[in-house]
Every structure is written in C-alpha cells, then in structure tokens.
Amino acid sequence: MDDIVWSYRDSEWTEEKDLVGYDVEADGGSIGKVDAASNETAGQWLVVDTGFWIFGKKRVIPAGVVVGMDHEARRIIISMTKDQVKAAPDHDESDWDTQDARQAHAQYYEPYARR
Questions:
Q1: Number of domains into which the chain is organized
Q2: Origin, by domain of life (predicted)?
C-alpha cells in the first residue's frame, strides 16, 4: 500500500514544477504553504509549514492524499480535513530518513490516500 500513499494520482502534476510556496488546502481551508517537496519515485511528499495554525509545526503530506493541483493559482488540494491534518504526526527533519518515521506517516495517511 505504500506506493499509493507515496505517489501522485497523476504524474504530470509535478513534471517540471517547483511546488515550494504553493498553498495547501484541506476540507475546511488552508493548512499552510509547501516548504519542501520530494518527487522521488519511491517517495513523493510535501512538507507543509502550518505557521501559527498548529503552533509553527510542519506536516509531511504524502502525494497519495493530493486530489488536485492548480498551478496557475499555486494551490494544492488534499483529501483530508484540517482536523485530520492537525492530528497527523509532526514532521521531525532529524529522523525523517528512518524507516520507522516514514512507516508511521504511511500508516496514519493510508486511509486518506486515493479517496
């Protein structure tokens, strides 16, 4: 199931695109802006800076929960509510490269991928 969580529904969404700075919208409104993005084959994800909304925390948003992109408006839409994003694991850059951290995120986001 990891491939569904960590890959975009449409590979053309990110071709030759820099998503840093895009707004990310969940059901209920904006959750923040893309701070970093990975387009690796085995792991496509966004790091979203939530600003003051979740006390300056960041969230990893796996590509599988992205349901749309509007490049003209620089906006990404995800299949989650703001509360579901708020309840997601915090992004800790220092341990992000560990299998345990990625697995914890995959388990949390799996129900929202490909909805």
A1: 1
A2: Bacteria
Residues 53, 67: contact at Cβ < 8 Å? no
Tokens (6 digits) for 54: 């979740």
Which of 2-41 are b and which e, b meaning 16 or more Cβ less than 10 Å from the residue's Cβ?
bebbbbbbeeebbeeeebeebbbbbeeeebbbbeebbbee
Domain that holds residue 107: 2-112
Report field, pTM of the whole predicted structure over 0.85: yes
Sheet containing 66-70: give its strands across: 58-62, 43-49, 29-40, 23-27, 75-81, 66-70
CATH number at residue 41: 2.30.30.240
Residue pLDDT tens, the chain, 115 long: 567 899 998 888 888 889 999 999 999 999 999 999 998 877 899 999 998 888 878 999 999 999 999 999 999 999 999 999 999 998 888 888 788 888 999 999 999 997 6
